[in-house]
Amino acid sequence: MAARYAYVGDDPAAIAAAATVLEHRASDLAANASSASGELPRLREAWTVGSAGDRAYAVATRLSAHLDTIAPGLRAGSDALAEYREELVLGRARVDQLNSAHRVIAPLESLVRSFGDWIDDSRSAAYDRAVTELRVAASTTGYGSLWEIEGNYRAVTQRITSACEVCQAALRRSRTAVQGRAPGRSSFAGMLPMGLQTGPLIDGFISRGLLPPEAASMTADELLTYLKDHPDVARTLVDNNPGRGQPGSVEAFLHSLGQPTVSAPGTDIAALQREQTSALFHTLTPQEQAVVGMLFPSEVGNLSGASFVARDAANYVNAVVARDDQAGVVADLEKKMADLRSMGPFPGVPASLIATYESQLADARALLGTYDRLVAEPDRQIVVFDAARGAFAEVSGTIGPTTRNVGVICPGTTTNMGTILGNVDTYSWFVDEAVPGQLAMITWMGGGLPQSIVPEAMSDSYSRDLGPLLAGFSKDVRLETAALTGGSTAHLTVAGHSYGGAVVGIAETYGLDADRVMHVESPGMGNDVTSTSDYRPVNPDVRRYSMTAPSDPIALVQGADVLGYGHGGDPDQMAGVTRLATGNYKVAPPLQAPARTAESSPITPTRGRTCFRSSPAALSRCGRPIR
Amino acid sequence: MPTEYQVDVRATRATGASLARLAEPADSAAGEIGGLQISSGSGVSVADELAAFASVWADDLRAVGASFEYLGTAVAAAGTAYEGTDAAAAAAYARLPLRRTAI
Q1: Which among A42, A172, A178 has the least Cβ separation from residue B15?
Q2: pLDDT tens digits for B27-77?
Q3: Among A172, A334, A348, B45, which residue has the fewest nearby CB atoms (within 10 Å)?
Q4: What chain B residue is nearest to A283 in terms of C-alpha separation?
Q5: Residues 6+ positions from A4 with CB-CB distance below 8 Å
Q6: pTM for the structure as a whole
């Protein structure tokens, strides 16, 4: 017979095992710290004069100091788990007691109640007997009624919930004390002079004049700051390509990626290289990954399979150079404008020319504004960046052990490098709305998008350029998510808004890797796509969704497809696609005015719109289907 | 470049080896702590926070292990390099009179 009350909280045995592991390891590492501090004077005595000796001693001192903090950090976790376990054991004993009491009290109380409110004389003896038995049972069990048992169970639940929260807080405190900027990563590596682990690479760059001598003793963060302040040095790194390097080194590996390879027929070289690259980067510490990215920004910034830490660091350097270039463009245009204005309004300078320059200047300033923000905000995670192609992708939130869902969204017409950060701000709201740590969003613009509805957005050329890139990127995200979550169970959703839907559709014909695909105000499922059987999904169980606001003019072109114009089948009508509700209101709440369908039409997801509110739900697999 | 060095080559090599040996406990702890996980049975659970805790500390310990290994190897290699440099200098010195004689 099933117990009335379930146990609350985790299995105490599992918690005890985890606490024991942490306690044992804390003891081992305390001994290790003691040995390390014992080696320090010996190192100094053995090597009293010499710059290499000074450097080794400095590193050893820093290592030893950090080691001293590890045992207390692990013990804090162990102690928290041990206290939580005690509550769990007590709680389970109490729940057992409550179940036992319930088994006794429930039938007796039921019997007493069965007599009703009025007891006639013929039944009073039986009633008295029942009441007596209930009182005896209450005395034996310690619980007078089911109500009292229920109240005690609630108290047990509350107590264990509190203990769980206390334990979580202690674990979080211990973790955040050592956590670095990257999710799931320690900050320790970033505190070491990078010469410790990437010494040969750094030394080689210094000897070739690509880095200044002081780079030898910089941390990864210090090098990043240095490159920000020295765009000329950043440019030399961007212009440099990986050489042959030492056999087995990262540089040699990066160099090999550009070389022709011989392989068996049918080998998916891209997939193979992606996996090899990911495996290589994830054997490095995050600091090393970042350093490799900074040293080879052109190679690593968009390298399939490279860790996102490395791509982000590389793209920071790329952005520093792009900002420097763009500042020059803006300065040139400003000078031209100033020269034209100084000539005065005479017939030689047509107004249309001035207007053209003004428009160019506004665009150039918008672009510079984006680059300024990227450089000024180093905590952004830029995993795709190419100023020449207008390619960009940024992660909002973090991909880490607690991640349950990762969303990739491709925006639509009129989005460009000058405006993309607005999209990032918008989509990061999804992350804010989700349970903390469980959703990460990636705003992806793998290249130029149409800048006008007619004629550019009618053409399939942009989607045909970007689709294969998105398919490849989805595989990068899958691989990286698996690496950062420890063999991921996180779901991957790829969404396209407006023209982005056409891009997603074409990507599906190239083998998109997704668990869910979402079309938002999408013009179609991809040029030439008439059914989902035209797709080559990596995951055969992929679920597809579509949401289109009522009377959105996009509906006029959904399903239109003539040669290179139009974008294939209508996502709202296609078999195998679940249509989701957008709601009818442009703004929600407050729902003060009736929605005008025309207002819903642009539907660029804006906070507060009902369609926008459906999106996080769909990203978390609980959208409300229309049909 | 510095022009003065004072190093006990043998002691340096020994210290390097000792430092490198400190990598093993850190690596081993990283492996075990990185594998810590409990199943999240009910809504009340520390599973997610424990996973995040284990991930960060395992990464920290991996970095510590890699640092000790690299430092120890580098220190030992430096000791050997000093020895080699001294031997090369001695050999070069020994050859000098012969060249002069030849001239």
Answers
A1: A42
A2: 999 999 988 988 876 679 999 899 989 988 998 898 888 888 878 887 888
A3: A348
A4: B62
A5: A98, A99, A102, A103, A106
A6: 0.67
